[in-house]
Every structure is written in C-alpha cells, then in structure tokens.
Amino acid sequence: MTLGKSGWRERLKSLSVRRGELEDNELVSRTLAGDMRSYEELVSRYERLVAKVLYPYAKREISAEDLMQETFLRAYDRLDSFNPEYRFKTWLLAIANNLGIDTLRRRREMVEFNQEIHSGATSGGPEKMAMDAERDAGVRAAMESLPETYQVPLMLRYNEEMSYAEIAEVLSITVPAVKSRLFRARNMVGEKLSDENEGG
Q: For 109-160, what is each residue's pLDDT tens digit?
C-alpha cells in the first residue's frame, strides 16, 4: 500500500514529539537514547532554578552562569547513573549544590551577595507598595547576608516551595537537619531585622 502526500504528512506529525509536554524521566530516557533536544528541554526547564541555587556560591571570578553550565555538563556526564525512582529536579539540584560547595572550598573566603536576588511582586496603593518594597528589601538583604549553609535551604523552602524531604535530598542531609537549618536561618533573619529596626 502506498501513502499519498497527506498520508506521509500525518505519519511525520505522529512521529514528532512535543518535548515540553513530556515528564522529566521520559526526557532523560530520550537523552540517553541520543536525543539531544530532550536534554535541551531539561536545561531550559531548570536553568532558572539551578541558577538560584548556585547564586550564593558565585564570586566575581566565577559567575553563576559559569557554575550553571558546569552543573548541566556534570549532570549530562552522569545521566546514566540517574535513578528514575527519584525526581530529576532534586538530583540535578544536588549536583548544583555540591558544585557550589566545591567552589567555596577552593576559595575559602566570604561569599558576596547581590541585592537583586529574590525580588517579589507587590500590590496595593503607592504607600503600601513603598512599605512592602522596603520590608521586602530588608528581608532580602537579611537572607543574602546569611552563610550559604542557611541561605540555600531557606530559598528552596520559601521561594521554590520544596518539601523538607526534597531539600534534604538536594543538600545530602537528613530532614531533621533541614528543619534545624531552617529554624536557625529564620532566627538569624529575625535577629538581623530587629537589629536594623532598633538601629533605625
């Protein structure tokens, strides 16, 4: 049986894949089978989140962008070791976090933080917006002054709304250790804010 032009068109359409609609694990399988566009989809899906995790570790001499590229290269090299019983996102963020820690170990110096991170939208009148912006800026500055040990779990919990178990997997620590770090981080932010208010 021969197919007409329209028949081939239909066949091609059925073979084409909308990668944006595929689950992470399916994209991993397709990448391992040689489909590089599936890995490109994973990169575009998670580059913003990976950059957020790496930001506290970045320095002038090595940007978050460089660390992000290195993370995705490492993940690609280790893709065949990925266990599909786990979430690709947490596996990838664990690689990013470990790279950040390695980078810090090589430098052994204080991390600089940028005031632009963790921006949030506000609503209401001009006065409320100004007050919210001032409060948010204070919270942001307090968060960014924390050591990365506390800043990263705080960001994953409140900005990315990840569960304690997911954060534990990313940071390679226990759930109680995550809760302890978050408790300490919240206290540190609270102390910094109250010190500022007393000083103002």
A: 433 333 334 444 444 556 656 665 666 677 777 788 888 889 899 889 888 8
Range of the domain at 83: 21-108
Query: Does the pLDDT of residue 27 top 50, yes or no?
Result: yes
- Say how far apart CA 21 and CA 30 lie, in whole Å: 13
SS3 62: strand
Measured CA to CA, the distance from residue 4 to residue 129 in angstroms comes to 63
Average model confidence (pLDDT) across the chain? 80
Query: Amino acid identity, residue 100?
Result: G
- pLDDT at residue 47 in the model: 93
Domain boundary residue, one of 76, 108, 140? 108
Letter string b/e over residues 126-159, b meaning 16 or more CB atoms within 10 A of that residue's CB: eeeeeeeeeeeebbbbbbbebebebbbbbbbbee
Encoding tokens for residue 153? 């779990």
Same domain membership, residue 152 and residue 101: no
* pLDDT the model gives residue 122: 41
CA 34 to chain CA centroid, nearest Å: 26
> Count of domains in the chain?
2
25 and 104 in a single domain? The answer is yes
Residue at which a domain ends, from 60, 75, 108: 108
CB burial of 166-180 (b: ≥16 within 10 Å; e: otherwise) equals: bbbbbbeeeeeebee
